[in-house]
Amino acid sequence: MQTGTGRSDSGTTAGSVPARNGLRARLHDILAGLSLAFMNIPQVLGYTRIAAMPAVTGLYTVLLPLVAFACFGASKHLVVAADSATAAIFSSAVGRMATPGSTHYMALVSMVALLSAGFLLVARLFRLGFLADFLSRTVLVGFLAGVGVQVALAMTRDMLGITTTAHNPLLQLFQTLAQLSHVNIPTLLLSAGIVAIIMTGDRLTPRAPLALVTVVGTIMVSMTFGLSRFGIETIGPIVGGLPRLSIPDVSWNDMLALLPATTSCVFVIIAQSAATSRAFALRFHDPVDDNADILGLCAANAAAGLSGTFTVNGSPTQTAMAVRAGARSQLAQLTFAIVTMLVLVFLTAPLQYLPRCVLASIVFTVALGMIDLQAMVAIRRESPGEFGLALMTAAAVVGIGVEQGIFLAIALSLFRHVRHSYEPHTMILRRDGQSGLLEPYDVRPGQQTAPGLIVYRFCADLFYANATRFAHDVQVLVDNAPTPVRCLVIDASAITDIDFSAASDLRDLFTTLRARHVTVIFGRVTPYLRADMDRHRITPVISAVNIHAQLHTAIAAARKVMTDSEISKPTIH
After folding, report:
1. 406 and 429 assigned to the same domain
2. Among 504, 489, 494, 490, which Cα is nearest to 528's?
């Protein structure tokens, strides 16, 4: 019973439970942001090696760009920061135009970020977010699994204390295996201990900020005991300070030369960010607005270019880290940005003592968590064909690259869809002996719905690639019918569109059937299909009176034609 003061009998203020839950959620996001910062700050420093940029610019990618995406993007989970895929693309292109690490090189790299922002703005204006609709759940599961394997392989070198030069994950694996005799034992033991602590802790206390505790703890141990004395490599010195906003000083000719690399980066940004945001939105049943995310990515890259750093992207690994840390909104990313600002101003000195193997071990456990074995098993059980697609996507991401893997997955998804449309289900409707109703059966020679009557169903839109299948089925049924066919009824319930090529084939087919005194009647014709039939001149060939909105009226019309021709009345209902 509620009292007039808005309190229940137990003394709890109405609405206080949701308020407490909201406060608890915000506290979880803030804590997740702290954990995310201590995991990811060292990681983005590592990406500067791929980008051939000063280490501090890695921190800049998780300062203003994070804030910009949080303000303009829609995804609750996507972490926009430095990314290895885009870093590899622009560094290889810009490296041919200027000396890596030089002032001119840094200006060119920042201009790539600004140009990417401009292209992304165009993509938003043209609402190109629909491209993400071609990423099925199957593709997303395979994509994340491939990224997980790729990242796990990349982390093993730092976990073992060895050096590899290859960027391809498989080549990295071969180089790692070739150098196993040079493994640094203290590094290996520390890595194994970190992995064991995190994986055991995730089972026992999944909400605990283990990564944060691990990073802080190992920094303190490294500062106290000097772990570098044992051959354990650390991050090393980092120059601090906040970025200065400015427009990169780049000539017009240089801007034109940067366009190919920028275009490649933009395609990767859209595809990878969409795949990542959708994968985690599906996991938490959140709404998706890909066009708003593109605007957020545009703002983030504009902030990156103006603050003197490099192109940023939606990172699947860092997003997985955020989710694993308990982040459920962009408040965690804003907390991450605030921590980054504090680190840039006050705390760059302690970071130099963080062992690289600790960071690699944390990322390794996150990468393993991105491989959703339960989802893969469910896909295999329900749809072996789609399971193959998921495996091919994962293999492509690992063997070729993230961006190539995404585009290959989209291409394979479209191919699979076209193949279904090219080879659709077709059937003949016949009276069932027990129910007395018309039931679908596979198309085979010698079948009829009733003496002199065939009711045929084609379960796809008609286009240039499958019109031959339609014509072939009809000819097989008519040519091999036990009694001469007088009426062919087309159940068009699944046909909503006919293209120009298919229409030409149908006109030829129906003209041939008319010459053989076979009347063609369409049933379940939608207004869309009727418009196509009129526009493509199919209606005059079969006559408008033979086009019906319902199947039963089409069959009744066929019965009348057969009766008028003194053919026995078929016993169908």
Report:
1. no
2. 494
From 295, 287, 273, select the one nearest 125 (Cα to Cα): 295
**What are the mean pLDDT values of the chain's consecutive 10-residue runs (573 residues total)?**
45 56 79 82 73 85 94 91 78 83 92 95 86 74 83 85 79 87 91 90 75 83 88 83 91 92 84 84 85 94 95 87 84 92 87 84 81 87 85 85 71 77 89 82 92 94 93 95 94 94 95 95 96 96 95 94 65 49
In whole angstroms, what is the distance from residue 76 CA to residue 60 CA? 21
Neighbours of 302 (CB within 10 A): 21
Residues 58 and 99 in one domain: yes
Report phi then psi at 245, rounded to 5. Answer: -80, 130
* Residues spanned by the domain of 532: 423-568
| pLDDT of amino acid 228 | 85
Kind of pairing between the strands at 453-458 and 487-491? parallel
Q: Apex CA 315: angle with CA 314 and CA 320, to 5°?
A: 125
CATH code of the domain containing 517: 3.30.750.24
Residue at which a domain ends, from 382, 417, 452: 417
Residue type present at position 299: A
Q: Looking at residue 302, what is its pLDDT?
A: 97
- How does DSSP assign 379-393, residue by residue? HHHH-HHHHHHHHHH
How far is the C-alpha of 294 from the C-alpha of 123, rounded, in Å? 7
Q: For residue 253, what are the contacts with CB-CB under 8 A and spacing of at least 6?
A: none
Residue 114 has what pLDDT?
96
173 and 254 in a common domain: yes
Residue keyed to tokens 């900020």 = 209
For residue 43, give the amino acid letter.
Q
Domain finish residue from 375, 392, 417: 417
Judge if 345 and 407 occupy the same domain.
yes
Please give the pLDDT value at position 402. Answer: 67
Q: Indicate whether 12 belongs to any domain.
A: no
Asked whether residue 2 is domain-assigned, the answer is: no
Q: What is the pLDDT of residue 48?
A: 78
Structure tokens at 343: 């680190």
Structure tokens given for 200? 């055991």
Q: How far from each other are the two terminal CA atoms of the chain, in whole angstroms? A: 61
Q: Answer yes or no: is 14 within a domain.
A: no
Whether 9 is in a domain gets the answer no
User: What DSSP assignment string belongs to 431-494?
Assistant: E-TTT-SEEEEE--TT--SBTTEEEEEE-S-B-TTTHHHHHHHHHHHHHT-SS---EEEEE-TT
CA-to-CA distance for 15 and 351, rounded, in angstroms?
44
282 and 384 co-located in one domain: yes
The contacts of residue 201 (CB under 8 Å, 6+ apart) are 208, 210
